[in-house]
């Protein structure tokens, strides 16, 4: 069974493109300072409509961006940790499916939490039982401008969530932002999984396309990639019990593992300064 793609004519076949990457951080101000020190230009995003989270954006010339996402208050972080210890964290995340997805992966700390595909029309993928939604999201920018979008959430944890703008996209994603470190766009995303065949099949069903063979960036790995415009989504699975992916998979589960940014220089960014996110600059 597929993931809800409708091809009978009532709803056009959806198109997909990588929209943004979510990095969950403990303290948004400190993370913004740290990413600025790494050479990124930080754009304050605002408070989300649910009041639970706020964000800052790192937009690129290709229209994609990194999102630094944090809970809005220290007491909320304490409440979540207490609920997580008791297994009742759904009480906190019920109002925000996106936050719930992120927090399920980052109980052990911050870092790469999720990524989003822009999907148009969103109605082309929902309604068959394997994708939840759509739900309305939004935030108020620091200048008072309200922006809104719709989201859908595949039940397969290895898949990204889906987003479709309601207000104009340029209101959500600032254009014409440059960075001192030369970063200009997203080149590749690495998704780690412990169930290679099932994960590849989930991406095939969602995207409606076959993967390409690729060279694994980590030796002794199974690997394929799906290409969306100029971005490669690499699906990676470990071979053998001592593989370096075993530990993060045990700690965080299937999902986003690494990001490669297109830039005018090559560098591996300090994971401590990047709040545990594995980000590489690749010279293009």
Describe the structure.
This protein has helices at 28-37, 74-86, 90-93, 97-105, 169-172, 196-207, 246-252; strands spanning 15-24, 43-48, 53-59, 65-71, 111-120, 131-140, 146-154, 161-165, 185-192, 212-213, 221-228, 231-238, 255-263, 267-268, 279-283. It has seven helices and 15 strands. Helices cover 21% and strands 37% of the residues. It has an eight-stranded mixed beta barrel with strand order 1-4-3-2-6-7-8-5. Strands 10-11-12-9-13-15-14 form a seven-stranded mixed beta sheet. It is an alpha+beta fold. This is VOC family protein. InterPro entries: Glyas_Bleomycin-R_OHBP_Dase, Glyoxalase-like_dom. Residues 18-207 form the Glyoxalase-like domain.
């Amino acid at each position: 069974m597929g993931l809800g793609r409708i091809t009978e004519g009532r709803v056009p076949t959806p198109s997909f493109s990588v929209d943004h990457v979510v990095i969950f951080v403990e303290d948004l101000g400190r993370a913004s300072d740290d990413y600025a020190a790494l050479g990124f230009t930080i754009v304050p995003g605002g408070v989300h409509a649910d009041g639970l989270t706020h964000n800052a954006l790192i937009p690129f010339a290709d229209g994609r961006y990194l999102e630094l996402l944090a809970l809005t208050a220290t007491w909320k972080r304490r409440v979540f940790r207490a609920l997580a210890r008791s297994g009742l964290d759904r009480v906190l995340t019920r109002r925000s499916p996106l936050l719930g997805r992120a927090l399920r992966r980052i109980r052990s700390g911050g870092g790469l939490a999720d990524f989003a595909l822009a999907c148009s029309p969103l109605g082309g993928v929902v309604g068959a039982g394997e994708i939840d939604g759509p739900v309305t999201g939004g935030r108020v920018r620091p200048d008072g401008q309200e922006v809104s979008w719709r989201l859908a959430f595949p039940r397969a944890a290895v898949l990204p969530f889906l987003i479709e703008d309601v207000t104009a996209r340029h209101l959500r994603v600032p254009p014409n932002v440059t960075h001192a470190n030369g970063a200009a766009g997203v080149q590749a995303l690495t998704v780690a999984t412990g169930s290679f065949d099932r994960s590849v099949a989930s991406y095939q069903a969602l995207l409606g396309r076959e993967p390409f063979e690729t060279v694994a960036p980590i030796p002794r790995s199974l690997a394929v990639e799906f290409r969306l415009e100029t971005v490669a989504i690499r699906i990676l699975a470990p071979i053998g019990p001592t593989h370096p992916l075993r530990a993060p998979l045990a700690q965080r589960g299937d999902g986003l593992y690494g990001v490669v940014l297109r830039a005018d220089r090559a560098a591996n960014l300090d994971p401590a300064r990047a709040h545990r996110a594995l980000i590489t600059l690749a010279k293009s």
